[in-house]
Amino acid sequence: MVAAGCIQLGNWQHGKAERKAAAQALLDHGMQDGTIQLAGPPADAEALRARQVVVRGRFETDRQFLVDNRIQRERAGYHVITPLRIEGSEMRVLINRGWIPAADRHADLPDVPTPVETVELRGTATLPGQRFFTLGPEPATNTWEPVWQNLDLARFRSLAPWPLQPVVIQLDPASPAGFGREWPRPDERLERHLSYALQWYGFAASAVLIWLALGWRRR
């Protein structure tokens, strides 16, 4: 029983390492495939995943929000998410403009300078997760809040009065209108997961050996 549990935990850690390696491989492949111009027609989210894109348009701050509890260099802050109206269309796309520090008093929201002119942005097309850890209940879906616990694309779409692309652009460090953009690699801490997996497999092997030894002594 103990050995089986240890094996399951080892498999779980190994699976996390494999998923991280696959995500990094997809990103590396997307970096080599050239840049895609993101325009008004609805895009295929899976076809854009991890691809480099360029988009022109204007920011719209009335539906801008901050994603809370983002850490950079051991400092607490937010990710700034601003909709961009794509030039020549009614379509919008969410831009993750990067990290800004939180104020000393958490109730005081930081000032977010945003250009009003047309901008051309480059970044990586990402698909936000759909399973979230929350520190408390989210507000009702018909209520707009300036601070969110997670980047929930489905929730945003339910509140937005216009069409929305199914990806979020993670702004490139060289693009304008951004903040801290030390984006972590998808395979970050991969070795740690593999190390944990080996430890759990080792515990499983030890449990089996102890069981065999005890059985031999009883004989």
Summarize the structure.
The protein has helices spanning 2-32, 45-48, 153-159, 190-218, and strands spanning 35-37, 52-59, 65-72, 75-86, 92-101, 119-126, 147-148, 164-171. The chain has 219 residues and is α/β, with parallel strands linked by helices.
Structure characterization notes:
It is built from 4 helices and 8 strands; from the N terminus they run αβαββββββαβα. By secondary structure, it is α/β, with parallel strands linked by helices. It has a 5-stranded mixed barrel with strand order 2-4-5-8-6. The two termini are 21 Å apart. The model has no long low-confidence stretch (mean pLDDT 81).
Keywords:
219 residues, alpha/beta, 2 domains, five-stranded mixed β-barrel, 4 helices, 8 strands, 27% strand
Backbone structural class: alpha/beta
**Number of E strands:** 8
Rounded mean pLDDT is 81
Q: How many angstroms separate the termini? A: 21 Å
Total helical elements: 4
Biggest sheet, spatial arrangement of strands? 2-4-5-8-6
Please describe the biggest sheet, giving its number of strands, its sense, and whether it closes into a barrel.
Answer: 5 strands, mixed, barrel
Gyration radius over CA: 22 Å
The total number of structural domains is 2
The secondary-structure element order is HEHEEEEEEHEH
> Uncertain regions: pLDDT < 50 for 5+ in a row?
none
Helix content: 25-40%
Shape: elongated
